[in-house]
Amino acid sequence: xxxxxxxxxxxxxICWNCQGAxxxxxxxxxxxxxxxxxxxxxxxxxxRISGKKVDEVIRRTKFDCSFRVEAKGFSRMRI
Length: 79
Description:
Elements: E1 13-15, H1 24-37, E2 41-43, H2 52-61
Parallel strand pairs: 1-2
């Protein structure tokens, strides 16, 4: 017996290296991006926020699943 599966998946992913996620404008901008693009996955490295602030941002996205890594400090190193 042979099983075959044929399907195509359209997945919308945005990787946005946004600094300033703690600003009051960030939430509105993020909501517009999510509404316009109807994303499946949002990757946002180096947001420069942590703890309760990042939990609030994640809650506002209304994604079913989320994953985050707690910041261990915010480097100010310049190259």
